[in-house]
Design the sequence.
């Protein structure tokens, strides 16, 4: 009896392997797709369609019990919770870096393989991630869908808007554990830490000079190529880096986002505040090794040393005249073109250089910032004070 049952079992198993669903039924089962009746997007699983539909309905039934944030799907909630737990289960088998999401690991691996599957159909530039390509395309379209609700400034990427808003709120959530300094962005904190470590991981392949910041290296390379790809659409002046262009544009718009906490004077960039504060402290950290004269700004020392060397590296391609400073060459060239891009918003008078406009504005305001320390007479321009001092020295 047992032998007979055993034979039947073997026969049944053999038949079950032979008798299967007809191929046309199998193919039909494999081809079954679930389509969204709103946007017509298709899914291979009904559960994925159900989750997708919540995008249209706005339904977010899965709520994080730590921060209260809600999600369309359970898998999104599970991934989010790892932010609180610190769990990063997806590890790169090349460099051991870990990630919260499997998709992030997949994108990361392309750094090692060099794979850039997402290509721009306008300029053929390629990217590791599709989201980077989407953001890049906005350079061509000019699209800036993320708008600040405080100042109406628009951005092509959401993360740039989030960072920008911290200018208004003053929020600086990232702190250096060495000196306690606070930063609005993690990238700024990472750059700052290199001040303490002395790390300069970015090397120029032309002159071998090293830098702590990749953007500074990119800007430095323009010295070798003489490339100035970023143009001001107001005055036409060119710059080697977008950050320098943005800072320059603030001179035209008079936008001054950064304030001195001593005198409350405003400036278009944080580097200007650092230099400005030396007026209050009297600090002049840059000393000429020829005459020992000191300067509060490194650029002023560089320009000053040309008095000793006689170096005038900036040459006019029209008349051949040379200048110690590039800004002097730029202003000089306008004598050939007749261009006067700096206009007084009080009387509409125009000037070749911004320094001329600054001096002119004082005729309206009555400001005389240069004072003689002998007789206390004040002047609009530093040059006028210098000439005046000779009256005392000749006596």
Sequence:
């Amino acid at each position: 009896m047992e032998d007979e049952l055993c034979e039947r079992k073997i026969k049944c198993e053999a038949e079950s392997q032979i008798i299967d669903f007809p191929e046309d039924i199998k193919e039909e089962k494999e081809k079954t797709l679930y389509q969204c009746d709103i946007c017509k997007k298709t899914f291979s699983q009904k559960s994925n369609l159900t989750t997708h539909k919540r995008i249209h309905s706005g339904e977010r039934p899965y709520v994080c019990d730590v921060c209260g944030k809600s999600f369309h799907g359970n898998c999104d909630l599970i991934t989010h919770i790892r932010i609180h737990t610190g769990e990063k289960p997806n590890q790169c088998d090349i460099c051991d870096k870990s990630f919260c999401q499997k998709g992030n690991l997949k994108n990361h691996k392309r750094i090692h393989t060099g794979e850039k599957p997402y290509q721009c159909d306008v300029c053929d530039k390629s990217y590791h991630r599709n989201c980077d390509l989407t953001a890049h395309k906005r350079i061509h379209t000019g699209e800036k869908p993320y708008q600040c609700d405080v100042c109406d400034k628009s951005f092509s990427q959401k993360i740039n808007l989030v960072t920008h808003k911290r200018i208004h709120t003053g929020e600086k959530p990232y702190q250096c554990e060495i000196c306690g300094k606070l930063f609005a962005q993690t990238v700024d904190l990472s750059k700052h830490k290199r001040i303490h470590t002395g790390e300069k991981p970015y090397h120029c392949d032309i002159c071998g000079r090293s830098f702590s910041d990749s953007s500074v290296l990119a800007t430095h390379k323009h010295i070798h190529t003489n490339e100035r790809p970023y143009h001001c659409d107001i005055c036409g002046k060119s710059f080697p880096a977008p950050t320098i262009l943005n800072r320059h544009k603030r001179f035209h718009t008079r936008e001054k986002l950064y304030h001195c906490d001593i005198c409350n004077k405003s400036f278009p960039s944080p580097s200007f505040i650092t230099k400005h504060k030396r007026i209050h402290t009297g600090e002049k950290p840059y000393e000429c090794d020829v005459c020992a004269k000191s300067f509060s700004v490194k650029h002023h020392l560089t320009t000053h040393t040309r008095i000793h060397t006689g170096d005038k590296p900036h040459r006019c391609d029209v008349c051949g005249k040379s200048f110690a400073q590039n800004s002097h060459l730029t202003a000089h060239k306008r004598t050939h073109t007749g261009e006067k891009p700096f206009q007084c918003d009080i009387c509409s008078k125009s000037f070749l250089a911004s320094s001329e406009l600054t001096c002119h504005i004082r005729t309206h305001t009555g400001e005389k910032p240069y004072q003689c320390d002998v007789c206390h007479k004040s002047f609009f321009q530093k040059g006028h004070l210098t000439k005046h001092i000779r009256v005392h020295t000749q006596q």
